[in-house]
Amino acid sequence: MLVTRGLVSGYAGSRVLHEVDVEVPERGVLAVLGRNGVGKSTLVSTIMGLVRPMAGSVTVAGHEVAGSRPDRIARLGVGLVPQGRRVFAPLSVAEHLEIADRAGRKGDWTRERVVELLPRLGERMRHRGDQLSGGEQQMLAIARALLTNPRILLLDEPSDGLAPSVVHQVADVVREVCGAGMSVLIVEQNLRLALSVADRVVVMQKGSVRWDAPGAEFRRNRSRAEELLGI
Ligand SMILES: Nc1ncnc2c1ncn2[C@@H]1O[C@H](COP(=O)(O)OP(=O)(O)OP(=O)(O)O)[C@@H](O)[C@H]1O
User: Fold this and answer.
1) Does the beta carbon of 42 lie inside 6 Å of ligand 1?
2) Ligand 1 proximity of 82 Cβ (cutoff 6 Å)
3) How high is the pLDDT of residue 103?
4) Is 36 in the pocket of ligand 1 (CB under 6 A)?
5) What's residue 187's pLDDT?
6) Would you say the CB of residue 41 lies under 6 angstroms from ligand 1?
7) How far apart are the first and last CA of the chain?
8) What family is this (predicted)?
C-alpha cells in the first residue's frame, strides 16, 4: 500500500535518513520505533511531502510520489496526524471538523461517523481547541485526518504526553480504522502501544532501519527490541 525504497532525506546540509526501506501492509499497521532523534518524524514528513527526499522512492498504491507536493500526496489518500496534534487554540471542535470536511477527499468518513468513533468529540463540539485535554486534542487530530478519507493514516507519536487510559483509546481507534480497511503507519516511543497494534515493526537507529520484523517475531524477541530501543 505504501512502500519506501532507498529513501534518503534530511535538511539543508544534513542527511537524516539513509536508504530507508519500509512497507505499510494493506489494511495493517506498521509501527516505526526508535529513540529520540533517529529520524522517525523525518520519515513521516518525507512520505507526506513536507520534506523533499534526496534520493529513493515512495509509492502510494503504486503511484510514485517522492518529491511530490503534500496536496497531491493527500489526494492520493495519505492522511497525517502530526506530532504535537497542531490543534488551533481559538477554533471550536465543530469548526476544526467543518474545515477538514470541506478540504478533504469525500468518502465514507463523514462527520457523523467520526463522532460515532470518537464520542468524546461529540460532547465537546463547542469547546475551543485550547479548552480540550491532551487526549481530546489527540482525538480531534485523528478526526481531522479521518475526514480527509485516507487510505493510509500516518500517526506521529500519538501517545505523547497522554494518560495510560487515553493511550488505550488511541490503540482502539487504530484497530477500528484498520478493521474498516485503512492502512496505518504509527511512529511511537510507547512500546506497549506499538506492540498492541502492530502487524509489522521497524526499529530505526541513526536514520537507518536496524530491524524489520512481523509483530509476532518482535514480541517474541522482547530483549532484542529493548536493547535496540535502549530501554
Ligand atoms: N526542521 C529541521 N531542520 C533541521 N534538522 C532537523 C529538522 N527536524 C529534525 N531535524 C534533525 O533531524 C534528526 C532526526 O529528527 P526527527 O525529528 O526526525 O527524529 P525522531 O526520531 O522523530 O525524534 P523525536 O522522537 O524526538 O521526534 C535530528 O537530529 C533533528 O535534530
Assistant:
1) yes
2) no
3) 79
4) yes
5) 95
6) yes
7) 31
8) Belongs to the ABC transporter superfamily.
Residue 101 is predicted with a pLDDT of: 83
Distance 37 CA to ligand 1 centre (A): 5
- Can you read off the three cell numbers belonging to residue 68? 511530490
- Taking the C-alpha atoms of residue 124 and residue 216, their distance in angstroms, rounded to an integer, is 38
Domain positions in the chain are 2-229
Give me ligand 1 centre to Cα 42, in Å. Answer: 6
Residues of the chain with pLDDT under 50: none
Q: Which CATH architecture has domain 2-229?
A: 3-Layer(aba) Sandwich (3.40)
What is the pLDDT at residue 2?
95
pLDDT at res. 3: 96
Our answer on whether the CB atom of 39 is closer than 6 Å to any ligand 1 atom is yes
Q: Do 23 and 83 touch, CB atoms closer than 8 A?
A: no
Q: In this predicted structure, what is the pLDDT of residue 185?
A: 97
Compute the distance from residue 46 Cα to the ligand 1 centre, in Å.
12
pLDDT score, position 161:
81
Pairing assessment for the beta strands 152-156 and 183-188 based on DSSP bridges:
parallel
Q: 180: closest CA among 117, 132, 133, 111?
A: 117
11 CB near ligand 1 (under 6 Å): yes
181-217 burial, b at 16+ Cβ within 10 Å, e below that, comes to: ebbbbbbbbbbebbbbbbbbbbbbeebebebbbebee
- The verdict on the CB of residue 34 being under 6 Å from ligand 1 is yes
| ipTM of this complex | 0.95
For atom 25 of ligand 1, which residue has the closest CA?
A: 36
Compute CA distances 35 → 25, 41, 50, 123, 207, whole Å.
Answer: 23, 11, 22, 36, 11
